[in-house]
Structures
1.
Amino acid sequence: MTDEKLAIVVLAAGQGTRMKSALPKLLHPLAGAPIVAHVLATARALDAARVLAVVRHERDLVAAAVEAELPGTVIVDQDDVPGTGRAVELALDALGDFDGEVLVLNGDVPLLNADTLAGFLAQHRGTGVAASVLSAHYADPSGYGRIVRSGDGAFDRIVEQKDASEAELALDEINAGIYAFGAGALRDQLANLTTDNAQGEKYLTDVIGLLRAAGSEVEALPVSEPWLVAGINDRAQLAETAARLNALIVRGWQLNGVTIEDPATTWIDLAVRIEPDVTIRPGTQLKGATAIATGAVVGPDTTLVDCEIGANAEVKRTDATLAVIGEGASVGPFAYLRPGTVLDASGKIGTFVETKNARIGRGSKVPHLSYIGDTEIGVESNVGAGSITANYDGVNKHRTSIGSHVRTGSHGVFVAPVTIGDGAYTGAGTVVRKDVPAGALAINVAPQRNIEGWVEQHRSGTAAAEAAAAAREARETDVD
Ligand code: UD1
Ligand code: CA
């Protein structure tokens, strides 16, 4: 049920300078989704009456990511007054006379989950204070704002790293960047913010000190697990956060009945789906909307992007994107499956095989060293080792059609467009330029001609010529 008294403001306008990146910080991917999308997913779970996102840096890109994750989010544009305080001030303008609770979420704190946030909100509402701040104790608090408490332990104010004294820098309780405010109290104090600090910004954190000075009560509530509120400012923090999230995702699948042999080298995006009794071997990345059915064995050293893997299939040392692998089929080792590859049940794409836009029918096999592109293959056919579909004439791509129960010889070239009928054979080394009717054998290799004595005549003085001479002499002695 929608919480009519709750508005959520996601701060997403900052420049993310410390990332040193052309891509806006909040759009860097984390388990396959932009950082900011994780925050919006959490916001969605709380079912607030209003969700607003404040944007400015790379405004259109960030706004598009916000809308993609949570359609209906109100986009608020920050002006050129910098700081988290200014961002919230503009969001409050957009909220009009809303008078419930305002939950403010830093867009770069992606691991916080809805349960923790719901608990925080309930605690805030329970105490009836003007504002609550989520905090955490960090062994290394550098980079974060510190929670300053007075002698009796009561929460006093937040000091930013850049404005902190030596003694304040030594404090290990950090401001997580997650706040709950009564809308009225927040609105009153935002009006009093100044940019009088080391960064020349309107700090949202100063609202806390102002509320305290005005006699309001404020609470800092520490989270149980500090990593829940880890912020991402630079790429080292991005990698740490990604590893933490991945460990959670891997563990989730393990508890759901998936064997994951080496969690440290297995990376699974949030949107991936895996059935019980799948085995994931070391060095495997499962990305995008990949789905794996029960009994399949994937890896080692395999990357699957947006792939569908059927039950009991085996995919070894493979790189695949937008491929569909049927039940009991086998792929790799060392296969490269490009978009549009469909391998039906019990089929095989073997070693050093590249496929693209190719449908390989039930039980059909492309076992070794081949390129199969823009092709359909029927059922139970076998494509010989080292076969190439020559699908590109330099201007256009053309299709190759191979029927059912076909046997093609090794080192075949299929010059598309070309069709091989059901039950047909091709000889080794055939360059198939014309259609092959069903049941025919196609061969076009010229008869072999042996030119006796050629090496001794044309390569005299070489080791080959000496070996040839020795063999000839031995033959002549035998004859004598
Ligand atoms: C902020 C807090 C700090 C806290 C830390 C937690 C302030 C002043 N400091 O610091 O106390 O420990 O988060 O992670 O709030 N943003 C805007 N508009 C702006 C500036 C920032 O929307 O003008 C957004 C950013 O996109 C980001 C968030 O606000 O999502 C936090 O900004 P950032 O610059 O990363 O603040 P920190 O220095 O990490
Ligand atoms: Ca930050």
2.
Amino acid sequence: MTDLYRVLPEEMDNLVIKLGQPRYRADQLLHALYHESPKKISDLHQIPSTMQDALVTSGYTIGTQSEVHRITSEDGHTTKLLLKFDDDTLIETVLMQYSPSQDKTHPRSTVCVSTQVGCPMGCVFCATGQMGFEKNLKAEEIVAQVLHFASLLRQRGEHVTNLVFMGMGEPLANYDETIRAIRLLTHPRAFGLGQRSITISTVGVIAGIDKLADEDIQVKLAISLHAPNDVLRKKLVPTAGPHSVEDLISAAKRYFKKTGRRVTFEYALIDGINDSNKVAEELVQILKGNGAHVNLIPMNPTAGGFSRPARKRVLAFQQILRDGGVNCTVRVEKGSEIAAACGQLRTDVIKNITH
Ligand code: SAH
Ligand code: SF4
């Protein structure tokens, strides 16, 4: 069985020709798939029923997903869904909306997708890391998360404007399916999202970063650094082993050199662990002078017993970076009261189901 949502436009051309149909049928199919939310092949009214039958007998399907749980933050700007696929896989996906700036009529609508169920990296402060690794998601399951929100937004005359790979899992540890999903979501004949509106966040899979720099896709890259030295980083990212902080910074420089796109370093600030003035000064030493941008994320509390620093501490940390010449912002918080940090909703819902 092959899900039509994993078929790239060029492959769709070959498929319709193989079925003895004219090439324009490929565009009809793609348009229906990416802009009309069909639930099954017989919903593809644009194509003749003989072709629908031929697709079914050739083993093509349209996978569906259902919402198991939906929570919306009090301000209505963040919506988090737990989606269930046909094989009972449960994943989280989040929509974050920002108010329109003066010259725009539509809000910025960013979808945060998952690429794996659980995560093999085991970061100690991350709810996904603590659930262990279950499986890699297929490209069609990544695409489905975006299309699910696209269809909800379409009903109110809005659309998805940005995409971040910051949900459950490590995208570069599921490289091929992640790239296939990006190709489908950005291809003008498929979903057509701008490549530059996409950010991939990685904990630092160096081979993946180098490979990504060579792809013909213009995505932005964020590297989750969390510490200025290996001793501290390994406490937070136990699987960081083979890659030192220095290796990550070199990989970011190579990515910039090849692509012309600067890498952002994400830094989850954890109370009493990686938020001291001394640590901030060390971070300045390793990052200054290379145009780095640091995005501080005051951590969302998870089961691991870690907590976020007081606001004063976050601002003091930021000031030290800025004074040292390192560009630094603090992540605008979205929906922490609905547990928007990756993996938390799934953990909470599964707990409620099983206890
Ligand atoms: N695996 C990738 C992408 C998914 S995590 C990565 O680690 O980059 C996306 C971001 O959320 C990462 O920067 C991660 O460090 C951060 N994150 C995970 N758990 C968090 C928590 N409890 N609070 C704040 N940020 C968290
Ligand atoms: Fe995986 Fe990213 Fe969570 Fe680490 S922070 S466990 S890499 S999802």
3.
Amino acid sequence: MLEATLRGRFKLKHKGPVLVGDCVQMHEHRDGSTTIEEVMPRTSLLRRRAPGKSKGVRNLAANVQRIVVVGAVRQPDWEPNLIDRFLAIAEVNNLPATLVVNKCDLDCDPGRCAEAYRHAGYLVVLTSVPEQRGLDDLRCVLEGHISLFTGPTGVGKSSLLNALQPGLRLRTADVSRKGGSGRHTTVAAEMFPFGHDGFVVDTPGLRDVGLWGLDPQEVSAAFPEFTALSTNCRFDNCRHLEEPGCAVVEAVAKGEVAETRHTSYRRLLDESADAARHR
Ligand code: GDP
Ligand code: ZN
């Protein structure tokens, strides 16, 4: 670990702060101190719009190549709406997403959680920490990339990373018996090396996905299986709600698209339209 400060010159040149994931050029001074001189060009930028009526965009992480969304079959309960929100963030940031269904040891049919997402084209990995299930597959996903690990609290993100890389020793939180939800353990954005040439980023800025602001246009783009079907909708500007001849609604009726995905879509669309009205 190396501590470095920002040069005054740097602060003037760059408006934003250095982000987790940034590649920087540093200078070591004779007195032993180190300063950041330059931020190298970013290959990706994960950003969030401020929620609701507030304006502005916040940059969260740089150079992330993949978002890994983790959910649990139970404890806490599998919540499609929440999972879909995390996936939507990956989509609007143009980052590929992988879904991890953890705690498979707690359910006799964990595949039920995966089905809708496999249909949508996502890579889904079923895992269990005590049974060591799916860990090799997950390791393959994380190797060689900068991945951002995210998902609801208490689903086992830290436990999975610890199991994959025992030296990491991330703090894990016991799920409180009351609401079935865990405590927050990480407060600052972090990035740590994974395997030979991978990195994992964790940023609390991604946790409160309920407060994430999306544009109405962004919402339909956030559901890739809808985009693929929409060329068959009767109307070019179909919103996939009550329009006649909507290929998405038809696919839901036929069971080719999960009803829960369409419900999440409608909820996100309602929220974004509401927020846009107030902006
Ligand atoms: P995080 O908030 O997502 O980082 O979740 P933690 O890693 O802190 O895990 C929350 C709780 O779930 C801890 O008590 C873990 O021991 C437990 N846990 C994690 N993974 C599994 C799993 O695969 N199966 C079961 N049964 N429990 C797990
Ligand atoms: Zn449609």
4.
Amino acid sequence: MCGIVGYVGRPDGHGNAGHSALDVVLEGLRRLEYRGYDSAGVAVVADGVISSRKKSGKLSNLLAELEARPLPETVTGIGHTRWATHGGPTDQNAHPHLSDGGKLALIHNGIIENFAELKRELMAKGVTFASETDTEVAAALLGDIFRTKLNGDVSDGGLTRAMQLACQRLEGAFTLLAVHADQPDVVVAARRNSPLVVGLGEGENFLGSDVSGFIDYTRRAVELGQDQIVTITADSVDITDFYGAPAEGKEYHVDWDPASAEKGGFSSFMAKEINDQPDAVGQTLLGRSDINGKLTLDEIRIDPELLKQVNKIIVLACGTAAYAGTVAKYAIENWCRIPTEVELAHEFRYRDPILDANTLVVSISQSGETMDTLMAVRYAREQGAKTISICNTNGSTIPRESDAVLYTHAGPEIAVASTKAFLAQITAAYLLGLYLAQLRGNIFSGQIKDVLADLNKIPAKIQSILDNSGPLRELARSMKDEKSVLFLGRHVGYPVALEGALKLKEIAYIHAEGFAAGELKHGPIALIDEGQPVFVVVPSPRGRDSLHAKVVSNIQEVRARGARTLVIAEEGDEAVKAYAEHVFYVPETPTLLMPLLTTVPLQIFALELASAKGYDVDQPRNLAKSVTVE
Ligand code: M6R
């Protein structure tokens, strides 16, 4: 959940290495702040001394602190932006944490599960603690090993050796970065179950939770494996396992440019990302078929014969990605006739699920680092299932640990509330469904061509929704004092309703609930009171007519009880007008593809309403972009 940056350059400023460690680290933290913003802190090594600053709250608080109490110019530094787990978001609990008499500084992302036991052990040795964090225990352990086990000897590995020994004692999930005053030109890092990427420069090297931590300086990145330690200097990158055995990282080129992770003139990243959606869907569809219109998903390296034998699909994901999975279920079952379950990843492995070699597990994750999803994928593999990951982040852990990956090409998503990744995930899931149907001969190639043609029309249709969103924005602003908004949908409109409600909760802090419209009479209708706003996502009148008629009846039912009905319907649907206070039309599209359109007005509504309330839509309270703890 936290963001981590490390940097070492050459002290003489040769090559590209004339950067100040503090500048690099702060720029990295600015880009990684989406990962957590409960506090921020930095430490630099200069003239054989560690100096650090840390402040609770957003990065801007740390910048003000650095303005008031500057740090020395130097070429070795680490920085951290925190999403609090152990201990509240205070200055004291902010990282870095120091040990070895202030000579060692450490930052951490993850949870040290055996911290209490280690703390007791260290306290028995006389170590005292200033914070409530598990991180300070890791810092103290590392300092203790460096000083008492290795006698502070830097000639034989020093901090690297101490990190190896410390990691052998740590349980849980962690990325750790440490600097020591006695090794001023080195940053040592370790990773287990938490993300860490190395950036390769000329006469300088970088570490980041993801590549955005150093994207302004290099596009050459190295993926680290599980349980590895990396030591960077200005001119070297050495990787070992936790026992000192040499290991190799996998180098790759980062293909997005820093500008795509900037706001580009929009008031927020979320606004930009909603606006990016025609591109996100278009890019995800790009290059997926051959000249005969046959779908080709080159990344799916699972033997087609095995895929033909799949008799059950389980989609695993969390949050918005799980709603994308629910949309996928309707499409996959329709096209492939394979029973498909969608499960919240954190529930999955605790219920003894039934799966075997004929089960295909499809995980969906924007970040590729969500711990709940990762653990569920690992569990599924252990049970012999085949795993495919739908992911937006190149080189991240979930695709790396899956049998195959289908990348979405939405570009970096920075706002905590997911928007463009959701549409790209749905698009990729459709492609996967069509691919399986093609492989298994469930639908004719002509039909696949037709669906692909309909999908290729989606970007322009999203654009037209964006271009005509004025009245919706106005409505959202007028509703800024609402206390509760309900969302109803049926069939593929149901996950859209859930997603609409989640967006509003996340960024506007308004009570919002999504319901399957048919469930209304079984309880939720009791919530309807005079003036209660209810969004209704209406299916196409050209689809199964009973479905449309049923949802129109649901609108009437809530309206009869005083609800203000705000309807998202397909252009030309006149039937809804009589029962709607406001209708927002989306272009005509086949029913199964409608979520790619009907979601967009709900995203815009949440964004506009939260902005009218004056909230920071990119960094909503209590949240972080990727949840890398269970
Ligand atoms: O990175 P992932 O797609 O695995 O993240 C899953 C959820 O944490 C994420 O979708 C979350 O629900 C977002 N805040 C939704 O806006």
